[in-house]
């Protein structure tokens, strides 16, 4: 357990690329139960079996031909006035926000406090670790996190959200 302190420092240091460091944290903690819980969260994030896309899974082996970028989500799956958790092709956790209908913005889901995964929560973004709350614009509203969630560039095409600029 003394390793946790030094590992936590790594997570803070690499706040933007927290996914792998978080996995390392779980592994080092020897918490098989924690790892299972993390997988459950991932499954919940990618649980939308949207008819028509046929995409899914977590590992994300990329497509074969066409080299089209894989959609992060369908706009219709993002609640208006809320957010949807997603994972990009690089395994980064992001939050897709549709504050107003048809306008999608995105933020890193890595909490700026200590790197936990921030989740959508009824019109806000909530970190379950120490209860930081962020607005749908990524700004920190309350809690120990004192910096906003970094914005992530996304664009909408044909009703789907893709990483990066259009
Ligand atoms: S890690 Fe998010 S509030 Fe502490």
UniProtKB/TrEMBL annotation:
What the entry lists under PROSITE patterns is as follows:
RIESKE (PS51296), TAT (PS51318)
Q: Which Pfam families match?
A: Rieske (PF00355)
Which prosthetic group or cofactor does it need? [2Fe-2S] cluster
Q: Which InterPro entries match?
A: Rieske_2Fe-2S, Rieske_2Fe-2S_sf, Rieske_Fe-S_prot, Rieske_Fe-S_prot_C, TAT_signal
Top-level taxon of the source organism: Bacteria
Q: Which residues form a coiled coil?
A: none
UniProt key word Nucleus:
no
Keywords on this record? 2Fe-2S, Disulfide bond, Iron, Iron-sulfur, Metal-binding
Kindly give the CDD domains that the UniProt entry links to this protein: Rieske
* Gene3D superfamilies on file: Rieske [2Fe-2S] iron-sulphur domain (2.102.10.10)
Its protein name is Cytochrome bc1 complex Rieske iron-sulfur subunit
Upper classification of the organism: Bacteria, Bacillati, Actinomycetota, Actinomycetes, Micrococcales
């Amino acid at each position: 357990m003394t390793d946790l302190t030094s590992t936590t420092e790594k997570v803070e240091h690499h706040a933007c690329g927290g996914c792998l460091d978080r996995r390392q944290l779980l592994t080092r903690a020897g918490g098989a139960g924690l790892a299972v819980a993390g997988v459950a969260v991932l499954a919940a994030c990618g649980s939308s079996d949207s008819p028509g896309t046929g995409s899914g899974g977590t590992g994300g082996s990329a497509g074969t031909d066409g080299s089209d970028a894989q959609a992060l989500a369908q706009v219709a799956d993002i609640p208006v006035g809320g957010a949807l958790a997603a994972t990009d092709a690089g395994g980064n956790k992001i939050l897709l926000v549709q504050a107003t209908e048809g306008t999608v913005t995105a933020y890193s889901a890595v909490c700026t406090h200590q790197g936990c995964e921030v989740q959508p929560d009824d019109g806000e973004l909530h970190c379950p670790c120490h209860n930081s709350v962020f607005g749908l614009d990524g700004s920190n509203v309350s809690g120990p996190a004192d910096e906003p969630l970094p914005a992530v560039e996304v664009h909408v095409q044909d009703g789907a959200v893709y990483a990066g600029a259009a």
